[in-house]
Design a protein that fits this description.
Layout (H helix, E strand, L loop, with lengths): L1 H18 L1 E17 L5 E5 L27 H8 L5 E4 L7 E3 L24 E3 L1 H14 L2 E6 L6 E4 L2 E3 L5 H12 L6 E4 L14 H18 L8 E7 L3 H11 L6 E6 L3 E2 L5 H5 L2 H5 L2 H14 L4 E7 L2 E2 L12 H14 L2 E6 L19 H12 E10 L5 E8 L5 E7 L4 E11 L8 E6 L2 E2 L14 H4 L1 E9 L9 E3 L2 E2 L14 E4 L4 E3 L3 E7 L9
Parallel strand pairs: 1-19, 2-3, 2-15, 3-6, 4-5, 6-9, 9-10, 10-11, 11-13, 12-14, 13-15
Antiparallel strand pairs: 1-16, 7-8, 16-17, 17-18, 18-27, 19-20, 19-26, 20-21, 22-23, 22-25, 22-27, 23-24
Helix pairs in contact: 4-5, 5-6, 6-9, 10-11
Length: 540
């Protein structure tokens, strides 16, 4: 019986291999110089303001996950944040420009959000009470979170016509709120001004000229209130969709060193209800379309505001709360990790995922707070991919996406490989293309399938260590449970990523393989591969 079962499994595996196509590819990484650099806290996740009755497409996926009603004492929430050591959390979203801070005199009563037919996004103004702000900051303090807070940029303005708002921003409520925050000693890394008011806006818009003037005002407030602080918070804006002329004008009007960071939003997969979401995610040509947005923003900043850096301030892939049983499943990690890699190449310092919790696109399940697959993708990126971005050249088909960074906290480099093909298995040769003497001598070293050629640090440089003990690589292969792309369980090297018996985030351990063994990337899988011996002077 046993031998028959074994033969059956062998036959099934053999047939599966026969059904696959095979492609050999070479990936060349330049370890001599970095092409870009991210922030230490590149991975970021948002907390939104949506009430529990926020619905899209007859589905209400937000529950009690907002800044106002999230259970901050839930043990999984703290553990999920702490696993990153210093996770950047951005507080913001569509309703942020209707939030009143319950401190000092107000133009209108401070009440909770409620449904309102003629209100912006169908809701009335909302309220952040200071006792809730205190609770949030206690969570941030005990978990080591790095906080970016999105401020109300519509306060005091009036609607000129449908979707267009004018008048100067009334800074009174924000000033009082920031003064309260400083008086309590709360650590805020950055203040962001407004949400999706740039260009034609989403629901509302403000001209770049007026926005720029208001940023000068806000910068003065920050400098004044934080006068005695050695390091002042960054000023971040505009938190909207990129439109070149509007962003350029904002930098020109606000002037040198007013805005520290230009944030833009990305929902390049379209509406959450789109039945073609999965096919878009697995289409390399579709994924690459947004590359021009990153490139254009970088050029705009270099031309009109070289003192500023670029962040993705919010990105959920699919808008209107994400795609049900898409955004919270394994298949979404193809899009998410590709975005992280692509954004990094274009000098993006921070990438904020919509959301940490809430909607269909939460890194955590809205009800149970159990991590969804993208949580583990984010955590692996955070732990493995360092700040230095390296140039990669690949001979593979477009279905194999490849990115390389200096490894985080250790020597060498880490490759991210994303196989979008449903039938091609890749065997990878990794080459180190370095010019050791800059303009004098160029050498090429190769990790080639079953052969390893120079380019490693010489054995004598490993003081007190045998060279052959060093010649290995570390692999993290990600696949969906049962091969189901819409599974909410991710496998790491064939083992399901589930909470431990004590309810803790599981350890994420690699398999260590000899450099003499071939590198294989199976169809519809993702792999992080660390090369601790890869000689990369740019990473020292």
């Amino acid at each position: 019986m046993g031998i028959h079962f074994f033969l059956f499994l062998l036959l099934v595996s053999f047939r599966a291999l026969l059904a696959q196509e095979f492609e050999a590819a070479t990936i060349k990484v330049d370890g001599a110089t970095t092409v870009a650099e991210t922030d230490d806290n590149f991975i970021c996740a948002t907390l939104d303001w949506w009430p529990h009755d926020k619905c899209n497409y007859n589905h209400c996926p937000w529950g009690y996950s907002s800044v106002i009603n999230l259970d901050l004492s839930h043990p999984l929430l703290s553990k999920a944040i702490e696993a990153f050591q210093h996770l950047r959390i951005r507080i913001g979203g569509s309703l942020q420009d209707q939030v009143l801070y319950d401190i000092g005199p107000l133009r209108s009563p401070c009440h909770p959000f409620g449904k309102m037919n003629d209100g912006l996004f169908g809701y009335s103004k909302g309220c952040l009470r200071m006792n809730r702000w205190d609770e949030l900051n206690r969570l941030f303090s005990r978990t080591g979170a790095v906080v970016t807070f999105g401020l109300n940029a519509l306060y005091g303005r009036h609607q000129i016509r449908k979707g267009v708002w004018g008048g100067a921003w009334d800074s009174t409520n924000t000033r009082n709120f920031i003064k309260y925050t400083v008086s309590k000693g709360y650590q805020i890394d950055s203040w962001e001004f407004g949400n999706e008011l740039s260009g034609t806006g989403v629901g509302a818009s403000v001209s770049a000229e007026q926005y720029g003037k208001d940023l000068i005002n806000l910068k003065a407030i920050i400098n004044q209130v934080y006068n005695n602080w050695h390091v002042k918070p960054l000023l971040v804006a505009p938190g909207g969709f990129y439109e070149q002329n509007w962003f350029a004008k904002l930098l020109q009007v606000s002037g040198s060193r007013t805005v520290n960071v230009m944030t833009h939003h990305i929902y390049n997969l379209g509406a959450g209800v789109d039945p073609n979401l999965v096919s878009k995610i697995l289409n390399p040509h579709y994924l690459s379309k947004v590359e021009e947005t990153f490139n254009s923003l970088y050029r705009t900043i270099q031309t009109d505001g070289p003192w500023a850096s670029a962040w993705v301030g919010e990105s959920g892939g699919a808008y209107n709360s994400g795609g049900h049983m898409v955004s919270n499943t394994f298949v979404n990690s193809f899009w998410y990790l590709d975005q992280l890699g692509m954004a990094s190449k274009y000098h993006t310092k921070v990438y904020c995922r919509q959301t940490l919790i809430g909607g269909n696109y939460g890194l955590l399940n809205t009800t149970t707070l159990v991590p969804n697959p993208d949580y583990y993708s984010a955590l692996l990126w955070h732990r493995l991919m360092g700040k230095g971005v390296l140039s990669v050249h690949s001979t593979a088909s477009p279905f194999l996406r490849s990115y390389a960074h200096c490894s985080k906290g250790k020597a060498g480099i880490t490759l991210l490989l994303i196989n979008l093909s449903n039938q091609t298995r890749f065997q990878i040769n990794v080459e180190n293309n370095m010019n050791f003497n800059l303009a004098v001598r160029k050498t090429t070293a190769m990790y080639r399938g079953t052969a390893f050629m120079g380019g490693l640090k010489k054995s004598m440089s490993w003081i007190g260590t045998k060279a052959d003990e060093q010649l290995h690589r570390e692999e993290y292969h990600l696949t969906p449970k049962d091969g189901n792309l819409r599974s909410q369980t991710m496998l790491l090297n064939g083992i399901p990523l589930t909470l431990t018996d004590n309810g803790n985030i599981p350890s994420l351990e690699p398999v260590r393989l000899s450099l003499n063994s071939p590198i294989f990337i199976n169809p519809l899988s993702i792999a992080f591969i660390g090369f601790p011996n890869f000689d990369a002077p740019a990473c020292v």
